[in-house]
Design goal:
Helices cover 40% and strands 19% of the residues. It is α/β, with parallel strands linked by helices. The protein has an eight-stranded parallel beta barrel, surrounded by seven helices. A hairpin with a 6-residue loop joins strand 10 and strand 11 (372-374). It is globular. Bound molecules: beta-D-glucopyranose. Beta-D-glucopyranose binds at residues 16, 19, 152-153, 156, 209, 248, 306, 344, 351, 360.
Length: 392
């Protein structure tokens, strides 16, 4: 069966600067990942931009990406480095010339060291520095951008950096996570207004991470309900000044009441007979529930800003694309206004604290030589984008 998508529906792929450019002066630099790599060289994207455009342009009409704040700005309120600005401008202009629209993410998990040193997102005082950075991004890059994400998954950032301690600065206090998310939300409102003032016709949103939480016993049910509220519903309320909801979805997380994932309890999901990838439980229908909730609650357009699967096997990725596009197609048929699907990720990249062997790429990247190879899944997705639909 061939599922075709509406004419105004777009396809695309996504990356983030921190995961594909060589670490400059941000807080991930030098950290050792779970699979034993040092966060330094990632996939040499800054050295291979022209080669990478040849892949990007095969995957739909939208490329979602970010810039490295630490490379662009060396101190609070400093002017952006002109040569780095020009490097990004050349890249963006080339993408635009190829007919690719750019969705720019202003913050994707990476802060310059100088920003961390002055308290980072824990302190309300830091907000002004990010706003200054945004203002300069608007001036330098605004003309190349068709849509903005102010923050990528503020809920993941706040929880991973300040509650579970997986991301730098490795804190473990729920109170801090709450403060960080509140500071990001305050910033979002200011940045949203700045962007709308500069470009009233361009859409602005965030990317909110969503997941399907399900209790496997009484305590688990209570935990799932609480997490669903804290992580998704409460965050959504804080960031509701948006033109569209950018939603990312990867995860089915059973709770017993502790979360069960392949990362922390390898083998456990299989024992529970739950399909999974290298990181989490796999349940595409969970996205359908999320889409219904957001549609009913906010009645705003939705963009799937990230979705994918952690696997070395392109066959898994093809199945993932089919499964999730079917969910989107069904939702559109039911009247949910989904504007586009952006697959994570264009290339294998550095999967944060877990490392580069946790692969999400449509294009395979050799861990050592950085050589790129189109995968079978990449060819499949390129065809989906070209035919504007999927054969399931
Ligand atoms: C993040 C990406 C990450 C992906 C897979 C999302 O939460 O935005 O940076 O690589 O998930 O874990």
């Amino acid at each position: 069966m061939f599922l075709s998508f509406p004419n105004d529906f777009f396809f695309g792929t996504s990356t983030s600067a921190g995961q594909i450019e060589t670490a400059f002066d941000h807080q991930w630099k030098g950290l050792e990942s779970k699979d034993g790599f040092i966060f330094s060289k990632t996939i040499d994207h800054e050295l291979r931009r022209e080669e990478d455009i040849e892949y990007i342009k095969q995957f739909g009409t939208v490329y979602r990406c970010s810039v490295d704040w630490s490379r662009l700005q060396r101190a609070a309120f400093a002017p952006l480095e002109q040569d780095i600005v020009e490097e990004y401008q050349t890249f963006f202009a080339h993408l635009n010339d190829e007919g690719i629209q750019i969705m720019m993410v202003l913050h994707h998990f990476c802060n310059p060291i100088w920003f961390e040193k002055t308290g980072g997102w824990k302190t309300e005082d830091s907000i002004a520095a990010f706003i200054d950075f945004t203002r300069q991004c608007i001036d330098c890059f605004g003309q190349y951008i068709f849509s903005w994400n102010t923050f990528n998954e503020p809920n993941v950032y706040a929880v991973a950096a300040f509650f579970t301690g997986d991301f730098p600065p490795h804190k473990k206090k729920l109170k801090l996570a709450k403060r960080v998310i509140n500071n990001m939300a305050k910033t979002h409102v200011v940045v949203y207004k700045m962007l709308k003032e500069a470009f009233p016709e361009k859409t602005v949103g965030i990317s909110l991470n969503t997941a399907y939480f399900k209790g496997t016993n009484i305590l688990g049910v209570a935990a799932a309900k609480y997490i669903d509220w804290w992580y998704i519903k409460r965050t959504a309320k804080l960031f509701q000044l948006v033109d569209y909801w950018g939603l990312s979805y990867y995860t089915y997380m059973p709770l017993n009441p502790f979360p069960v994932s392949e990362i922390h309890r390898p083998g456990k999901l299989a024992k529970m007979k739950i399909p999974h990838d290298k990181m989490w439980g796999y349940y595409p229908e969970g996205l359908s529930k999320i889409l219904k909730h957001f549609h009913k609650r906010f009645k705003k357009p939705i963009i799937i800003t990230e979705n994918g699967i952690c696997s070395d096997d392109p066959k898994d990725r093809i199945k993932c694309i089919k499964d999730y596009l079917k969910v989107c197609h069904d939702a559109i048929k039911e009247g949910i206004n989904i504007k586009g699907y952006i697959h994570w990720s264009t290339f294998d990249n550095f999967e944060w604290h877990l490392g580069p062997s946790y692969r999400f790429g449509l294009v395979n990247v050799n861990l050592y030589t950085k050589e790129r190879t189109m995968t079978e899944a990449g060819r499949f997705y390129a065809q989906v984008c070209q035919e504007r639909g999927v054969r399931i």
